[in-house]
Amino acid sequence: MNSSELRQMTRRFACAGLALLLLAWPALAAESETHAGPHSPIGMVFRWINFAVLAAGLLYLLRKAPAAFRRRAERIGASITESGAVKAEADRRLREAEEMLGRLNQEISEFRAAAMRDAATEHERIRAMAHEEAAKIRRAAEGEIGAAERAARIELKALAARLAVERAEADIRSQITPQAEEGLFRSFLGNLLESVN
To answer: Which terminus in the chain has less CB density within 10 A, N or C?
Structure first.
């Protein structure tokens, strides 16, 4: 029984009680004046009126109460059915969530394994790149060393030649006297004149 039905039923009982009180008021006033007892005719009338009001109220309740109880039972039954459906839906969602959690654990382990494979592949790639870079640096260093070695050899040969020339010049200067120089100059002029003729 919802609150609106309960209010409506309370109003009806209040109206019936007020009507009964208004109907009984003159009789109660007359009874108090005559001091008649409960077995007087007025007392008997009030007893029958009281019985009629009670019987009418009881009949009203017997007629209306089963329908109100039936509606209440139907609402309770509907609520129970709805609660069962909600519980079934919640159970289904719980099962789905548990399945997703199980799949999530599996996916996490698959991601972890894939990450480990990718890390190993990346490690090998970086190692190969490092070896390749080291080989390039080694080749470049060897090339630079070779160029520096060639430059040093050329410079060493030039230094040796310069030192040899200086040494030879010093040796020649120490061995040539002014008379030997004059003789050499004459023989050069003689050879020159002969080649001209």
So the answer is: C
